[in-house]
Amino acid sequence: MKKVYLRNLFRYYSFYTGGFVLFLFALAVAEFMGMPEQWIGWVFMAATISLYAGIGIMSRTSDVDEYYVAGRRVPAVYNGMATGADWMSAASFIGMAGTLYAKGYDGLAFVMGWTGGYVLVALLLAPYLRKFGQFTIPDYIGARYGGNLARSIAVLGAILASFTYVMAQIYGVGIVTSRFLGITFETGVFVGLAGILVCSFMGGMRAVTWTQVAQYIILIIAYLVPVVFMSYKVTSVPLPQLVYGTVMQELEQRERVLLADPAQSAVRDAFASRAAKLEQRLQNEPNAASAEREQWRKELKAAQEKALVPHPHAEAFPGTDSVQRDEARRNFLALVFCLMVGTAALPHVLMRYYTTPSVKEARESVFWSLFFIFLLYFTAPAYAVFAKYEVYTNVIGTAIAELPTWVASWTKVGLVAVEDINGDGILQLAELTLNPDVIVLATPEIAGLPYVVAGLVAAGGLAAALSTADGLLLTIANALSHDVYFQMIDPRASTTRRLAISKTVLLGVALVAAWVASRRPDTILSMVAWAFSIAGACFFPALVLGIFWRRATRQGAVAGMLVGLGLTLYYLIGVKFMDMDKWWGIGDVSAGVFGIPAGFATIVLISLLTPMPDPETFRLVELIRYPALSTGEKPPPVE
Question: What are phi and psi of 86, to 5 degrees?
């Protein structure tokens, strides 16, 4: 029976992949025959969203197990693919290569942290949570520590982390739809929201799972095709992952030439002068409106960065401040730590391991998740190098009046800016501002590839954002409908009522998240990093100690989650939004580096000062700790 099921799944998705490739070929022919670019954008968006909607509608269900955990019958390889799509999100697809472009080696913190986090998932959490079963992470917290207080804090943490994360996805959807449909960013956010809702609204986890498998196929094809084209164009070898090192050497030489250009020095001096004037204005006008002062601060920060012309090889250049390098190292390590721990604590990722048929397949699906994620992450550095090579070679030094059309197109979206500050009519390095979120989406146009490739990348970015947003919205809806309403308010609620509440909450949360995302709070990767710090600080200590330390008590877990989450939020909000001084120079994206250790220490201390858990809790821990046991077997005796 299982073999037939697997064969059918393989056949369905093979036909799906072949059909998508034929669709791309047909659009490429249509472009060659003269099909307008905007039409191509509309066709890509309409076709892919309709496809996802169709899968969502066909997967609709009113069964509780199917809605919350896809019936616990998702095979490991497909769960790995769905987890890969759920995990990579707009941050990985849109933001990863852009961050490597902007920060160079420092951007590798995201690659190391996110992939390393899956090692923690495999070793510390996935098999044990699958052994526990149930539907949500607050379910485990509530059962392990007892009482509604611990469950309530877990629900709060799940909502905060997932809401922050989903804002980034909706923001990414707004970028894609606004650029490729020719509509405003604010409108694009809500247009994309419709695509998110049709995937998850009717079928819950069942619909989300099979939609995410389809979305992974599209996003990985969309990510690999442009960089393979660029690799062949620049090196005549269509293996970007293997040859981008030689291109990076050429790029470094080109960067040195650009930085040594006297015109570049004049540009840096002009930005330094602007920064000095802005600093003086901030000092001389302390009573100006807060919004105006905030705008001055943003302009000051931008001018200071332009005056310094930061780049990824700072240590190779004389005069770089050693204090800044030390701070950069601390931030790198702090970010890696927060991303690793956050990965192992994200509720929407951990929920995926409830959907496998067994503990064994939960372990296997972690391996497949890493493999499918690896395909993209292994390519991201090559993407950044080839994109920067194209910009530095074919854009910098060009007459501003003759810049390619993609500059104007992305300027309208607000992700590209050009300023001829020295008035020479030539674009210098510091006069071009590229938001990291634009690199992947604009690279096909930057490299002069056919527009159908740009449309393909947009479809991939949309698939990445939609897949993660579906999982996140479902996590929030389930936390409120299952953990709050069903577990705390009305345990006798009917299945129909529970699912109706879940869908209502899902719709409401989606609208609020779309409204907040339309305000452009920050870059995609920054918002995602906040979510990882929040999740890590709230969940990781309580989850790990709850599995591996039987002595952890309810009082300790409650105090630890509150301290970890509270400290993280205090630092994040204070540094990002209230001009609070940084502790040891650590940025807001790594706020969890303070909250996570504080959470561990608090749980251990309070647990040692309070009575031991009851024997039933000991039995639950032992049962979870031995994943090989079936639920009917007797666990080891309690001491």
Answer: -60, -40
Write down the pLDDT at residue 323.
60
* Distance in Å from the first CA to the final CA of the chain: 43
Amino acid letter, 543? L
Task: Classify the phi-psi angles of 71: left when phi > 0, otherwise alpha if psi is within -120 to 50, otherwise beta.
Answer: left
Closest by CA to 514, choosing from 139, 170, 246, is 170
What are the φ/ψ torsions at residue 611 (nearest 5 degrees)? -60, 150
Residue type, 250: E
Least confident of 148-162, 244-258, 498-512: 498-512
User: Residue 632, class by beta-carbon neighbours within 10 Å (0-12 exposed, 13-18 middle, 19+ buried)?
Assistant: exposed
3-state secondary structure at position 434: strand
For residue 2 the two structure tokens come to 């299982």
Confidence (pLDDT) at 318: 39
Pairing of the two strands 416-418 and 432-434: antiparallel
Q: Is 637 exposed, middle or buried (0-12, 13-18, 19+ CB in 10 A)?
A: exposed
Cα–Cα–Cα angle for 359, 364, 370, rounded to 5 degrees: 135
Q: Cα separation of 348 and 528, whole Å?
A: 13
Cα separation of 603 and 387, whole Å?
A: 47
Rg (CA), the chain: 25
Half-sphere exposure of 606 (CA within 13 A, CB side): 20
- With contact defined as beta carbons under 8 Å apart, do 76 and 364 qualify? yes
**Torsion-angle region of residue 261: left (phi > 0), alpha (psi -120 to 50) or beta?**
beta
Chain centroid to CA 260: 37
Q: What is the pLDDT of residue 597?
A: 95
Residue 512 pLDDT class (50, 70, 90 cuts): confident
**φ and ψ at residue 432, rounded to 5 degrees:** -105, 125
Give me the amino acid identity at 592. Answer: G
Beta bridge partners of 399: 426
Give CA separation, 479 vs 140, 276, 347, in Å: 12, 50, 10
**Nearest by Cα to 316 from 109, 107, 104, 108:** 104
Q: Cα(225)–Cα(169) distance, rounded to whole angstroms? A: 22
357 SS3 class: coil
Alpha-carbon gap, residue 91 to 464, rounded angstroms: 9
423 class by beta-carbon count within 10 Å (0-12 exposed, 13-18 middle, 19+ buried)? exposed
Q: What is the mean pLDDT of the chain?
A: 82
Q: Which amino acid is at 59?
A: S
316 pLDDT higher than 60: no
Contact 348, 168 (CB under 8 A): no
How far is the C-alpha of 445 from the C-alpha of 407, rounded, in Å? 9
